[in-house]
Structure formats: C-alpha cells, structure tokens
Amino acid sequence: MQYQQVEAGRFLARPNRFIAQVEVNGQVETVHVKNTGRCRELLVPGATVYLERSNNPKRKTQYDLIVVEKGSLLINMDAQAPNRLFAEWAQVGHFCPNLTTLRPETTWGTSRFDFYWEDSDGKRGFVEVKGVTLEEDGLALFPDAPTERGVKHLRELAQC
C-alpha cells in the first residue's frame, strides 16, 4: 500500500469528526479526516500532519489527513489502512503459509468481522484488525474511548 502526492502541514483545529483545518504551503485548507475517533492526544494545534492530495475535482476537500507526528512517532490516521495492509500482508503468505481463503467483512452471529480465513489444512478463523490512535508514553493503546459495541464484538469473537 502506498500513498500518492503526500504533503506535510500544520494542524490547526478539528471543527468536527470529519474535517480539520490544516496549514499547507502557507494556506489554511479544510481537509478530510479519515478517522472519526477522538484522537485528542494526537490532533493538537501545531502538530505536524501529513496529507494525501486528491485529484478528484468533485471532492469537497483537496486533501485527506493520513498521518500525524507525535514526538518521534508517525501515527496513522487512515482508518481504512490497517485492513488494506493486513490483506496485502496475508495474501503473500505472512499470516498463514497455506492460506486458501481470505474474505473481508464476514458476518458471524450478530457481528461482522474484518476477515474470515481458511487454509489448506482445514484450519479457519476470524481476524479483527485495529488501527491505533491512542498513544501514551510511546505505547500504542486501543481503544481510545470506552465502547459497548467493542465489548459485544470481543465476546462474539471469543465464541467463534
């Protein structure tokens, strides 16, 4: 997975979950935030952020906010990236050398899991992939907020 047309900027504000104000090349731009989580510890005024420019003229915003710097760390802000990265990694044999099936967004019970997998030895299971947007003292933590849905999800995953 590779981003195209990445530019650095300076985070200014986040008026709502979906947009941010970022200074890019001396201009204040409204950018799309690809993560609707709280991210309070990350998106602080003055933080260096990285944006991907879009070539789609029909978009309301020219940029997507994809990464934020916190100290010496680069923290991904693209909520779709972890699943894409896992799929690429798994399909080249790193997850399971005998992988025969990798199906995204598979329902079991009342939950939908990120991936269902099978291998040639008859093993099978589910995978949940999480992006991490909470960092404390250099340690990545999840989740960044209490979640009843997450507890239900984990209970069903354990039943699988």
Description:
- The protein contains 2 helices and 11 strands.
- The chain has 160 residues and is mostly beta strands.
- The chain has a 5-stranded mixed beta barrel with strand order 1-2-3-5-4. Strands 7-8-9 form a 3-stranded antiparallel β-sheet. It has a two-stranded antiparallel ribbon with strand order 10-11.
- The two termini are 30 Å apart.
- Helix content is 14%, strand content 44%.
- It is globular and about 55 Å long.
- The mean pLDDT is 90.
- Strand 7 and strand 8 (111-119) form a beta hairpin.
Overview in brief:
With 160 residues, the protein is mostly beta strands. It is built from two helices and eleven strands. The strands form three sheets. It has a five-stranded mixed β-barrel. It has a three-stranded antiparallel β-sheet with strand order 7-8-9.
Chart the SSEs and their pairings.
Layout: E1 6-16, E2 19-24, E3 27-33, E4 48-53, E5 63-70, E6 73-76, H1 81-91, E7 99-108, E8 111-119, E9 124-127, E10 134-136, E11 139-141, H2 148-159
Parallel strand pairs: 3-5
Antiparallel strand pairs: 1-2, 1-4, 2-3, 4-5, 5-6, 7-8, 8-9, 10-11
Q: Write down the Rg.
A: 18 Å
Query: Pairing-aware structural class of the strands and helices?
Result: mainly beta
Count of DSSP-assigned helices: 2
Alpha-carbon distance between the two ends: 30 Å
Instruction: Let me know the average pLDDT.
Output: 90
Number of strands: 11
Catalogue the unreliable spans: none
- Largest sheet descriptor: 5 strands, mixed, barrel
**Into which percent range does the helicity of residues fall?**
10-25%
Q: Strands of the biggest beta sheet: in what spatial order?
A: 1-2-3-5-4
Listing every helix as H and every strand as E from the N terminus to the C terminus, the arrangement reads EEEEEEHEEEEEH
Strand content: 35-45%
| Rough outline | globular
